[in-house]
Design goal:
globular, 2 domains, single chain, Phosphorylase Kinase, domain 1, Aminoglycoside 3'-phosphotransferase, Chain: A, domain 2, 48% helix, 7 strands, 11% strand, alpha+beta
């Protein structure tokens, strides 16, 4: 059986057997064919019909297998805040969940966006605060350690990769000293490391504000989550209302952290965190492409270098 090959018949047979056994033990036996629903180089999702309704199976490639154990741990760390798994195989990175219906994005009316996103961001801040005391446990599960004190070295490692170095903007290596200064300032801001989703947007949360899809997550500066989240919101909002809405959303996320610093200091940290977390995004992409399960599109191959190139640009907040 070939690992990281969603089309290998032996791998598929093993996965189907595991799903069938787990669901049978849970009292919701499989009632029909298990369908390969969504295929990516880094993960695959199967739709499973059962007597209790649809169930979902997800598998990750080696570098992202920690998602299964992380999803299980989060159900314990922050009950009700995440989509709790029905079963996991942490060694193989397999995850089985119930169907939770449409995502927040699929149900959100345009005139409710800012209000609903505000609630989403504050709920995610609360989840992150719950993980602060458990970062050691998350590390034992294989969640990558990308705290800001480590990011300068991780950036150097990315730039040492010949494929990335050949594709990256030549101005990025010269930014290393300034980048280290940003990281040092963030490391001293009094905000503790926490779980950083790294790809949080309204399609990775349900309307009841349960969060899911942890395949890119790391331990890092919590405010780095805002990089993708606010970029998505920025691009969704109409230009006339964008500036005021973005400030409101940023501050809504930061409000649960105001016991640790005043709002101006938190805003400074958020801006810096969004900038340095572009390295985390590059690392996430490299993990997701190393040992890919299916051929990788050229657009995906260039993602790590493209995210490093973003270091040269200001943030949206």
């Amino acid at each position: 059986m070939r690992e990281n090959d969603w089309n290998d018949p032996d791998w598929r047979a093993a996965a189907d057997a595991w799903v069938t056994a787990r669901l049978g033990a849970l009292g919701t036996p499989v009632t029909g064919g298990i369908e390969q629903f969504r295929v990516r180089p880094w993960s695959v999702t199967h739709r499973v019909p059962t007597t209790g309704g649809v169930r979902w199976f997800k598998a990750n490639i080696t570098g992202c297998r920690y998602e299964a154990g992380l999803a299980e741990a989060l159900a314990d760390i922050a009950p009700g805040a995440t989509l709790a798994p029905l079963a996991v195989d942490t060694g193989r990175g397999w995850l089985l969940t119930a169907d939770a219906g449409p995502t927040l994005r699929e149900t959100l009316a345009a005139d409710d966006r800012v209000t609903t996103w505000t609630a989403m961001l504050q709920a995610y801040s609360a989840l992150q605060r719950a993980t602060v005391a458990h970062v050691g446990r998350l590390g034992t599960l294989g969640v990558p350690d990308q705290r800001v004190s480590l990011l300068p070295g991780l950036l150097a490692g990315l730039l040492a990769d010949p494929d990335i170095r050949a594709a990256v903007d030549p101005a990025v290596p010269a930014l290393a000293g300034e980048f280290a200064g940003w990281c040092a300032e963030l490391a001293a801001d009094g905000i503790p490391p926490a779980l950083q989703h790294d790809d949080l947007h309204d399609n990775n949360v349900f309307p009841d504000l349960r969060f899911f899809d942890w395949g890119d997550a790391s331990v890092g500066h919590p405010f780095g989550t805002l990089l993708v989240t606010l970029n998505v919101m920025h691009d969704t909002l109409d230009a006339p209302a964008r500036a005021s809405a973005m400030a409101r959303l940023r501050d809504a996320y930061l409000e649960p952290w105001t016991d640790l610093a005043d709002l101006p200091a938190l805003r400074r940290s958020a801006t810096l965190a969004c900038r340095v977390t572009r390295v985390s995004r590059a690392l996430s992409w490299r993990r997701g492409l190393t040992g890919a399960a299916i051929p990788v599109d050229e657009g995906f191959r260039g993602a790590p270098a493209a995210w490093l190139g973003e270091l040269l640009q200001p943030t949206t907040i």
